[in-house]
Amino acid sequence: MQKYFFTLSFLVILWPLQLDFVFAGEYVQIASSPNPVGSGARALGMGGAFIAVADDATAASWNPGGLIQLKKPEISVVGNWFHRTEDNEFGNNPEASGSQSVSEQDFNYLSMTYPFTLFNRNMIVSLNYQHLYDFTREWDYPFTSTRKDDFGIIFTRKDNVHYQQKGSLSALGHAYCIQIVPQFSFGFTLNLWDNDISNNEWEANFHVKRSISAAGFPFSSASQYDSVDKCSFSGFNANMGILWRATDKLTVGLVFKSSFTADLKHETTTEIIENNGPKISVEKSDEKLDMPMSYGVGLSYRFSDKFTAAADIYRTEWQDFILTDADSEETCPITGKSIHESDIDSTYQVRLGAEYLLITQKPRYVIPFRAGLFYDPAPAKGSPDDYYGFSLGSGIAIGRYVFDVAFQYRFGNDVGASMIQNYDIFSQDVDEYMVYSSLIIHF
User: Fold this and answer.
1) Which residues pair with 253 in a beta bridge?
2) Phi and psi of 62, rounded to 5°?
3) What local confidence, expressed as pLDDT, does residue 6 receive?
């Protein structure tokens, strides 16, 4: 009997300190689409095929070379709402499987643009704010495991897990564009990512209530585990783009978004509550996060003054997405493993879209109809996870006011296997519903 109670006491101490799995990349988990795109209900209503269109106040986020098409000063504001559902499947723990969902709304984009002429050249400057990455995720699930010791005693551990992540990354951009020749323009945007200027921080909370029981023994143990990871993010990068009007109908756009190394200030607070009382630890560190470069090409063809079609292809170098901790150890935030073990490939986005304008004369107003399709993969070990989607949009333009709205649906089936570390069988089906609304005012 004394040996049994020694075994029970040992597991009370050991088991509450162990988790069956953790999120790969731990505290760097981008919940939204990780691929950088632009903003605006008009562009997103066309499926995001906007690199070669880029002719409104959101152009700095898609292709700053397109800003030159703006003939009057403009301001824009874009809001968005999203609802994301993750239907998780834990192969070895079906009790943890199930649907988890979150909803959020935020300002997505703000801008002011001003065109002018200098040295007989058309130029334009723009100040922009863009919300780029979202970390919002919330999971609640039970998790049960059993263990048999050397004496044949079966122990059952039951966890009630609550995981919540919130926060976002955004950039303040200063854009400039110049018309080199009538058919060709070049522009760039300098992006400042700083928590003192715009919201660039996130927080991940892991809360576990745990109980352990032994079959055939009047024994039970309860404990609680809490961890909070807080990160602030700061850095600087540039976007460059060109727009070339090859013919009266065909336009070509190119865009490049530079890689950069961001500074992370990371703080972890851990609290473990057991029978002998709470244990609290706090760790702070300065780390680095390498953000990958991306680049794309777009084509647009104007069949008439009323109908335009566009196509984009975009590549992001996710193998260069690297987290360097305070001890200079490099890991891949996608898998949580070393960069040599991770096997991450680049991703290619493909976007197709079209716009048709219904124009009336008296009174004069414009009602657009837009639609688009896209392939928007997420980086994963071995090969990217496949995500697809479509969008629809409309709006109205009256005088100097332009209002647009767009609906976007993005989904992925049997994805997310790289998300969970130290767990063999995991996948999820993801559904994202997004609504964008834009207001542009011409002066």
Assistant:
1) 243, 298
2) -100, -55
3) 45
Residue 85 tokens read as 């559902």
Report the alpha-carbon distance of residue 326 to residue 337 in Å, rounded. Answer: 16
Determine which helix (DSSP H) or strand (DSSP E) holds 26, and give its type and residue range. none
Instruction: Tell me how far apart the alpha carbons of residues 109 and 107 are, in angstroms, rounded to a whole number.
Output: 6
- Report the C-alpha gap between 325 and 288 in whole angstroms: 7
CA distances from 157 to 146, 148, 207, 438 (A): 6, 11, 16, 51
Walk along the chain (443 residues) in steps of 10 and give the mean pLDDT of each run: 48 51 67 80 94 91 94 93 93 89 90 92 94 89 81 82 90 94 95 84 89 73 85 94 96 96 92 80 91 95 95 95 90 86 91 92 85 95 93 93 95 88 83 95 90
Contacts of 154 (CB under 8 A, 6+ apart): 146, 147, 148, 214, 215
* Overall pTM > 0.85: yes
Six-digit token string for 266: 């990371």
Amino acid at residue number 431: D
Residues linked to residue 301 through DSSP beta bridges, in sequence order: 250, 309
Distances (CA, A) of 240 to 33, 184, 402, 437: 22, 14, 27, 26
DSSP-derived secondary structure letter, 158 = E
Positions of E strands within 119-153:
121-134, 137-148
CA 275 to CA 205: how far, in whole Å?
Answer: 23
> Residue 8 to residues 18, 159, 219, 274: CA-CA distances in angstroms?
16, 18, 8, 14
CB 106 within 8 A of CB 168: yes
The CA-based dihedral angle spanning residues 422, 423, 429, 430, taken in that order and rounded to the nearest 10 degrees: -20
Cβ partners under 8 Å of residue 6, min gap 6? none
DSSP at 1? -
Cα 96–Cα 98–Cα 103 angle in degrees, nearest 5: 120
**HSE (side-chain half, CA atoms, 13 Å) at 184:** 3
